């Protein structure tokens, strides 16, 4: 993600700037009615160096972002007060919305696990676990929340089939195997997960941070 942001910044800079010998500036863009131009309400920092570039705001959208540790889809990053230079690339404020595909979480669980959306904003986990010396196919459904900066699904109902008394006894044993605790990887350090919802294609996460380094 950091690399993608860095490349986007460079491309945007070259697209917005003109060669030194180019003609005079064209007409200034006008803001749409009722919209506030961020460039009129923000100013570059006094500490901006000669080899650095400042952006009042910056938007990056990507259909898919892949890193060695994760895959994210439908990513939208909005940075404000961004400084880019050879020694630093920092956003004073950064908001990222991204979807964690169900298969990413299922692969983390292993055991041919399946994660899918359920009704009422819940999610379902289907997984084979070893319980009381037997392999049991478990279906657990629960709500998704944010705990200590992690995406967490806590089962509200667990079904392993069989008689109710057996299901209740075994459910207590297998609960930890169908509880999801997922760290969202592949994004710049300094972002904190603040909200998550269940969509048909994955978990939609909202992350925010201040003074976020966009590159190492």
What does this protein structure show overall?
With 216 residues, the protein is α+β, with helices and mostly antiparallel strands. Helix content is 16%, strand content 47%. It has 3 helices and 10 strands, in the order αβββαββββαβββ. The chain has helices at residues 2-16, 102-109, 164-174, and strands at residues 53-67, 70-84, 89-101, 114-117, 123-131, 134-147, 150-159, 180-182, 192-198, 202-213. The chain has a 5-stranded antiparallel β-sheet. Strands 4-5-6-7-8 form a 5-stranded antiparallel β-sheet, sandwiched between helices. The longest helix has 15 residues, at 2-16. It is elongated and about 70 Å long.
SSE inventory with pairings:
Layout: H1 2-16, E1 53-67, E2 70-84, E3 89-101, H2 102-109, E4 114-117, E5 123-131, E6 134-147, E7 150-159, H3 164-174, E8 180-182, E9 192-198, E10 202-213
Antiparallel strand pairs: 1-2, 2-3, 3-10, 4-5, 5-6, 6-7, 7-8, 9-10
- First-to-last CA distance: 11 Å
- Average pLDDT: 80
The largest pleated sheet is described as:
5 strands, antiparallel
Determine the strand fraction and express it as a percent band.
Answer: over 45%
Instruction: Return the string of H and E elements.
Output: HEEEHEEEEHEEE
Helix content: 10-25%
Low-confidence stretches: 7-40
The strand order across the widest sheet is 1-2-3-10-9
Shape: elongated
Q: From the helix content, strand content and strand pairing, which structural class follows?
A: alpha+beta
How many DSSP-defined strands? 10
User: What's the tally of helices?
Assistant: 3
Give Rg in angstroms: 23 Å
